[in-house]
Amino acid sequence: MSGHPSPCDRAELGRLFLFEKLDDEQLDRLCREGRVERFEPGHVYREGEPATCFFVLLEGTVVLSRQVGDDDVEVSRSSQVGAYAGAFQAYLGDQAHYKGSMRVTVPSRFFVLPAASFSQIMHDWFPMAVHLLEGLFFGGQSSQRTINQRERLLALGSLSAGLTHELNNPAAAAVRATSALRERVAGMRHKLGVIAAGPYKRVMLEALVDLQERTAEQVAKATPLSPLEASDREDELTDWLDDHGIAGGWQLAPNFVQAGLDTAWLDQVAAAVDENTLEGAVRWLNYTVETELLMNEIEDSTTRISRLVDAAKQYSQLDRAPYQNADVHELLDSTLLMLSGKIGRRITVVKEYDRTLPRIPAYPGELNQVWTNLIDNAVSAINDTGGVGTLTVRTALDHRDQVLVEFRDTGPGIPADIRGRIFDPFFTTKPVGQGTGLGLDISWRIVVNKHHGHIEVRSQPGDTRFQVFLPLTAPATDLDLTLADDPADRPHHDPDVSEETS
Fold this sequence. Notes:
The chain has about 500 residues and is α+β, with helices and mostly antiparallel strands. The protein folds into 3 domains: about 5-125, Jelly Rolls (Sandwich), CATH 2.60.120; about 160-305, no CATH class; about 320-470, Histidine kinase-like ATPase, C-terminal domain (Heat Shock Protein 90, 2-Layer Sandwich). Helices cover about 50% and strands about 20% of the residues. It is built from 13 helices and 16 strands. The protein has helices at about 10-15, 25-35, 115-125, 125-195, 200-220, 225-245, 250-260, 265-270, 280-315, 330-340, 340-345, 365-385, 440-450, and strands at about 5, 35-40, 40-45, 55-60, 60-70, 70-80, 85, 100-105, 110-115, 325, 345-350, 360, 390-395, 400-410, 455-460, 465-470. The strands form 4 sheets. A 5-stranded antiparallel sheet has the order 1-2-9-4-7. It has a 5-stranded mixed sheet with strand order 11-13-14-16-15, with helices on one face. The model is unreliable at about 430-435 and about 475-500 (pLDDT under 50).
């Protein structure tokens, strides 16, 4: 940082909105301890450098920016005399480094006050204000940490309820199928005893056993039919059974159709036994079909339970390293599955994945939290328009060599007058008690501060898009980052510049 000193004009300082209430003695102290400097176009200070000075613009244009990955993102620009930047929180003892960069686009003059002098002046002149600001600043940080934790607990409770609901359905189905299977196996044993006691020849029994084995294999390979095809085949099988004197054929036919069997299979059964034993053989083979179908149902139910448990593990990342190369599609799928109960059946989920995307360095558990917050907001927005709509999740490679994850919903959109505030802590449009206003705030911190990415929002009625951009590579210092940033560092704020207002 270098500048060209010039004399300090007490009258000029007195005209600034920051200093207009100061008396002559105070203005003299400012001039004694501070200085006026002129800077040529270029950087005045850079993000991460020691915060040594408090700057007040006297003439020129300043541009404030934040480093996001490899990009220098402009936060604000001002030519307003009296705009201030730099170590403006030095009096709190909480600003060791500049939290952004400042440059000038034209030759500019600043009143420059060393951070230590600024801190001491604040404590000497405004002790009560300093105490109030300290309480507001540090109390706000403490409250935010507490409510952040509460937000996570609420999200966990919602996910637990959804997971319980999703697990209950296949578990109940498996219990019902197991009970029915026990009855069918008992019936099969009884029918087998009847057959063994009957006038069956050994060759006939061998043929039936062989037919039973082939029937079981056929059930496993059955191809689902359309409703119309299934109805037509049931009619054919019912007619065949009626023609052969088998009572209640309309009850047997649906099982045979579901198993992929047809009249040709029934012809094989009829060829293996005589007319007197045909009905007993058909009913015995029906038990085989039913037991196979029930075992398929149990397998499907337990597989679904296993998949839900795997999704829960993937979502929570409890058994994995906190920082790793992750597949965003695996994370998205696990989150969608965890939230399927909340999404419901009236919302259509469309996945537009670019499967060629590489794995990215990330904190998977925290990215899942981002997906949860964005999906939850999208579902709430769709519910505001009647609960019927489409949620589209898209991934792509952005032209800046970043991974794009986009959540698009068909809700009512975000009004333009509040769009710039949606990432503010505690800001929410939900009714009292239904939202803390921290979901997007937490998402912002995770994406920007932990992953060096950024979030963009585009919205109009029927088409709202939250776009998350994540870098393909991580800086060496990534593991040292935390979420303990100042919420005022968001791009939609004017964090280090304040302008005089009427």
